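Question: Now follow the chain.
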Amino acid sequence: MPRSLIIGNGSTLATFDDNAQMRDLYYPYVGMEDHTKYGDVHRVGVWVEDIGFSWFSDPEWECTLNYRPETLVTHSLLRNEKLGLVITSEDYVHPVKNILVRNFRVVSTDGKDKNVKFFFNHDFHIYGDKQKDTAFFEPYTNSVIHYRQRRYFLVGGNTSNPYEQKDDPEISEFQSMINCEKRNNHFGINSYSIGKSEYQGKEGTWKDAEDGELSMTTIDQGSVDSTVGIFCSVSPNKESEINMWVCLGKSLEEVVDLQNFIQDETPENAKRNCHNYWKSWVNKSDNNFGTLDKKIIDLYKRSLLTIRMHADNNGGIVAAADADIMAFNKDTYTYVWPRDGAFVSLALDKAGYMEVTRRFFEFCVKTQSEEGYMLHKFNPDGSYGSSWHPWFNNNSSQLPIQEDETALVLYAMWKHFEHVKDFEFIQYMYENFVKKAAEFLYIYTEEDTGLPLPSYDPWEEHRGVFTYTTACTIAGLHAASKMCHILGHYNHEEKYQDAADKMKQALLFHLFDEEKGRFVKKIDRENGKTTNTDYTIDASVTTVWKLGILSPEDPRSVSTMNQLVDSLTVNTPIGGIARYTDDYYHSVTEPTNDIPGNPWIITTLWKAQWNISRAKDINDLKPAKEILSWVESHATKSGMLPEQLNPFTGQHLSVSPLTWSHATFVETVIDFLEKEKELS
């Protein structure tokens, strides 16, 4: 299920589904240690006296999910005619402190006063599983705390309008027992239940909530979950407020201190601070958006915020936080691909967020191999991620790499320097990354031709010598040469420039097919000879002009792109551009001439970039603007962009949101604005 809402602060990341229920909770790294079992729901339910109970996922709820404009504070509307309630839900993660807050404001819609109970279920899978976990009620903080080893999750909350009054002797004694005293004009949680889940046939304490009462069991261990209840009175004329929070830390003392903070600060003030912080962040650059529609501008800003949510404070930029992809291959997209990170960095630097890209480059320093190359992908803590590229194949050893992942980081570093002109940083990067990376690109070539040795393609499916990879490697060597120049390493400058020039000539000779008038996808080489040519039309060959290897006006670029657009356009009402012909990844139908594969956001935006690069007057920009509008039309209401779309329905396929999709949208918007200004 696509993630409709994502909030975080670079250490904590939470995602929510279409029913406003939490599906992923990452801590202490963005994309690493999902404490919700890869997309299992953390339920929210509502009980109304004399009417009944309903979970947010039940069909009688009407849910409209969105954000407060230009912020990472959600703003959703939930309506239930059966219960006679309308709820405004606002969620946020504190920008600095690891506290997730869910704020609910409730009004009665049928003209009646009501006693209402909110129930919040948490089924943590600490460190990714449910072994050896403990949950207990802590009376001094009036909270339920889950923990295992160095991970603690404190669940607390309050309400401004409790329906169980303190002056009732029985209730007063009960509330005193669980320390439910008034604090900042709010009362704490009213009830709780802790028990087994997913063990011996037990579903979990969420079932205990459906009659409106919880068992008040105080502790359990092993495979456990918990549910807390917060009770309030609701009227038709005034909003009642309920807050629930999760404090995340590495010790009991830390999460208790965090609860004290949010209680003293108050959730309302913390929400206001969060709102102001992110609104200032996303508007740091005073952009003139020219003739672009407001919807495109809004998606541009939402894309920047979405990218930031996928950027860990330690530098890693994960591809996607949507863990439902786990069901497809028992793995996720929550890794740092150096290629994706490089493309994201290019977009962020153009948009003015150099501090985020700098951390990414420092992450690359930590993860680079001694030989100079970047491996397939990494976990956000810098450890080597999962891979399907073998080290040994066909009775010989091989490097399990995609060479573009090394080359593009070099290219992005040079572009970063062009933006910031930080000589000290580029000197540091040269000594700690560039020297080894450039030398690897120089050595990892076929001696006679200068072509790169075989590696895997950007789609991670095939091995060979690719047009795409060759273009990336040329760009990486060019970048290394330029960095050597500004730092005074003139011998290496000439060395890498000569290698890039030789490789470019090899690219044009071996990978451009004169007869077909286009660049081929790849060739296989053996003993200095081409043994096979793959003529599959592949959108990735756009790197030849995107990275400046050839001009967009070069006849070879033009001929290639014309054939690419003609062959990869999806001829359904949905439209868009596929990755390559006969693409089966997440396909919903057998590939045909009309549907060569699913439309991808990235590849469709590459077409827009092509239109922009060749525009000679304002009218020439119209096709690109139409593509930007097309992308916006296929975002969720909350502004999430997927990897790919169903060619018949437009439904989001694979993961949603995908960081690379959002980065490409940001880059395309900036390219459009720069060209529009130039032509005006």
Notes: The chain has 16 helices and 28 strands. Confidence is low (pLDDT under 50) at residues 165-180. The radius of gyration is 27 Å.
